[in-house]
Amino acid sequence: MAKRWCGQALEPYPIHGTALKRKGTGIKSSEELCRIYREIFENSPVGIFTATPAGEFLMVNPTLVRMLGCENGRSMTCGDGQSHLVSYCGDVCFDHLREAAEHPGRTVVFEARPLRLDSTAFLARFSLRFVPGSAGEEQEGFMEGMVEDITAQREAEEALSRNLVSVERKVAERTAELRESNAMLRAEVEERRKIERELRRSRHNLRVVLDGSYDAIFVHDISGRIIDVNRKMLEMYGVSRDRALELSIVDDYSAPDAPVHELPQRWDRVVAGEPQFFEWMAKRPHDGTTFQVEVYLRKAEMEGDAAIIANVRDISDRAVTYRRIRTLSRAVEQSPVSVVITDPEGRVEYVNPKFTEVTGYSMAEVIGRTPSMLKSGAHPDEFYRELWATLAAGREWRGEFLNETKDGRRIWESASISPVLGPDGAVLHYVAVKEDITDRKEQEERIRHLALYDPLTGLPNRTLCMDRIAQASARVARYGGRAALLYLDLNKFKPVNDTFGHEAGDEVLREVATRVKSCLREMDTAARIGGDEFVIILQEIESVEEAVNVAERVRASLDKPFLPCGRHCGDLGVSIGMSICPDHGQSVDSLIKKADQAMYRVKGTGKSGVSVWEDLSEE
């Protein structure tokens, strides 16, 4: 399905469903890509666009936006009444669009009078070329186009032509009058001299116009002989004026691989009154270097004779730019990471196919919305405030998001978000490059869990237990209150393993973990620190009696029979020793040691029970 990005003037413009990458690019960062886009579109001297084969605009540059009198590029590419070439040029475009589509790679040139939004018309020269989709891509191809406003040029040419015709008519009229009457000879001679001065002035003006043209200009007689050139032609081809008039277009000014066999047919069309516009590979006669040009051939009348005028423009840099644009565009489209481009308010203007693949949202679903649509709620508001503060300061932001896809899945993304600044330092766009790191995060979490949790019971292991004890002690030291540490040892666990096997023993340990957790609050911690030994950390207890009550609940729960694998294994019983922080110390080692001592006192009785360390000191 074709993708659309509605851009704005003086900003990177829409990229629509086209393949955007070519090997060997050398582009190393999204910032470089954006700088290239900006320079290309802001400095292009002609209107540039891409369109669907049917003529619907996909990409427009600032020059074309201004040329057509639009407010911005978005209005021309967002599917409303301004988004189609026909909206400006009428039905004449259809035949040319069809011709270009039927001949991929060939440039179709025509002139038309498009209407601006204010209903004023201007004369424009259009060139279209159909670029088919690459093999294996689900794309139908697109039209490349250029638009050049030739109103002023044509008006000047027509004015000059009319002037020359008028002068010649006056000369002819005066000459006839002189032949009719010798009596008026002197007056008519003087009048003729006046007209000749006007003619010289007109020729001088024509020379000024020709030499001031941005294009190289060849003037041919009807047979094809070069009879005049302008200063730009001499500069472009590196020849003197006398030498320029002696040489031949086919033999001296055309590259060896130029299709010179096409020239006779084009020439005949021009002579018949049909202008021709095409690209050509030119050659400099003095050194044989070749370069790419645009040629516009038209018939004109000069001093009463038919002439063929060729406007030639060097487009070598433009051709390189077009190739670079296509290469960079393909690189973005085929990037293995998600690319999102927004306007300064954060509204999405473009996403690449990888974004759709990762999030499940199509381009049509996200255009005009903000990336907050992906929020999972996992990050606090302060996280986003800091992000926008960094971007508002013109700096790049790097970090990780826990986002939510269209189908409700949560994914981790590593993101780099950069502002694209204009010449005045104002933000034109934001570009986000994001990589899906969900698998890596899940793997890290699995590794972390294995490092900190007991794989059998799912309880914190010794490492995490020691850390939790230290945290509880630090909290008591900072905020006051008490915490309790309970050391549990199952009394008759070894016979279970010996009699019923390790599978039954594992089931008993898992059941112990479940029963212990059921006796605790959310803030408390139960951990397995080895074999049949467990530790409980009770946070924020009001008194020793409260901790003893919890211990008794745990003891009563574990005194109940266990049925591993559906078999009765007897009553196990549990010995529980307890130390209180800060009453019995605050260091981890001290609290563990004293709770262990209290536990062994109960163990010595051979029965289930609970003992607090201070009970030992009283004996």
Polypeptide structure, described:
This protein is an alpha+beta fold and 619 residues long. Helix content is 42%, strand content 24%. It has 22 helices and 20 strands. It has a 5-stranded antiparallel beta sheet. Strands 7-6-10-9-8 form a 5-stranded antiparallel beta sheet, with helices on both faces. Strands 12-11-15-14-13 form a 5-stranded antiparallel beta sheet, sandwiched between helices. Helix 6 packs antiparallel against helix 7 (185-211) and helix 18 (493-500) runs antiparallel to helix 19. The chain is rod-shaped, with a radius of gyration of 43 Å. The protein starts with 29 loop residues before the first helix and ends with a helix.
Runs in which pLDDT lies below 50 for 5 or more consecutive residues are 1-25
Shape: rod-shaped
Helix content: 40-55%
The overall average pLDDT, rounded, is 83
Strand order of the largest sheet: 2-1-5-4-3
Rounded to the nearest angstrom, the radius of gyration is 43 Å
